[in-house]
Amino acid sequence: MRNFLVFTAIILATIGCEKSIDITELNVLPLPQSMELVNSVFTFDGNTGLIINANEEDTKILAEYLAASKFNLKTEEKKKNLKLVLDENINSPEGYVISVNKRGINISAKSGAGLFYGVQTLLQLADEENKIPCGVITDEPQFAYRGLMIDVSRHFFDKEFIKKQIDAIAHFKMNRLHLHLTDAAGWRIEIKRYPRLTQFAAWRSPAIWQDWWFGSREYVNEGSDGAYGGYFTQDDIRELVKYAQERYITIIPEIEMPAHSEEVLTAYPELSCTHEPYKQADFCVGNEKTFEFLQNVLDEVIELFPSEYIHIGGDEAGKASWHHCPLCQKRMKEEGLKDVNELQSYLIQRIEKYLNSKGRQIIGWDEILEGGLAPNATVMSWRGTEGGIAAAASGHKAIMTPGQYCYLDSYQDAPTMMPMAFGPYMPLHKVYSYNPREGLTEEQAALIHGIQGNIWAEYVPTGEMLEFLVYPRILAIAEIGWSNPAKRDYANFKSRAIEAVNGLRKKGYAAFDLENEHGERKEAQQENNHLAKGTKVIYATEAPYHNNYKANGDDTLTDGIHGGWTYTDKKWQGFIKNGVDITIDLGEEKEITSVAADFMQMCIPDVWMPAEVIIATSIDNENFTELARISHDVVRDEGLSFKNFGWYGEECVKTRYIRYTAKCGPQRGWLFTDEIVVK
Ligand code: ACM
Question: From the candidates 155, 171, 178, 260, which is the catalytic residue?
Answer without folding.
Answer: 260
